[in-house]
């Protein structure tokens, strides 16, 4: 019985984790769409960075989040089969 409670708790936690990852992807995509169209971006006192570098970094982050999300979903399916 205790093991079942642990599995159900993990399933609930996975639901929250999946939703937070989806929200994070949505925020990244919104940031990509609303980013400035200048050739360079410089923060006061910071280094100049090409906008392409920022886009590349955001795309890499999005892909990593999507991969993590797939792993979490697979774990959730696995737990569902165990119950």
Summarize the structure.
With 83 residues, this protein is mostly helical. It is built from two helices and two strands, in the order αββα.
Characteristics of this structure?
83 residues; mainly alpha; 2 helices; 78% helix; elongated; DUF1492; DUF1492 domain-containing protein
Structural features, described:
InterPro entries: DUF1492. This is DUF1492 domain-containing protein. It holds the Pfam family DUF1492. It contains two helices and two strands, in the order αββα. It has 83 residues and is mainly alpha-helical. The protein has one domain (2-82). A two-stranded antiparallel ribbon has the order 1-2. The termini are close together.
Spatial extent as radius of gyration: 19 Å
Question: What pattern of helices and strands is seen along the backbone?
Answer: HEEH
Strand order across the biggest sheet?
1-2
User: Which residues form runs of ≥5 with pLDDT under 50?
Assistant: none
Fraction of residues in H or I helices: over 70%
The strand count comes to 2
Specify the biggest β-sheet. 2 strands, antiparallel
> What is the number of helical segments per DSSP (H or I, 4+ residues)?
2
Estimate the global geometry from the Cα principal axes.
elongated
Distance between the termini: 11 Å
In round numbers, the mean pLDDT is: 78
Task: State the domain count.
Answer: 1
Protein name: DUF1492 domain-containing protein
InterPro entries: DUF1492
Pfam family, one: DUF1492
Organism: Streptococcus pneumoniae
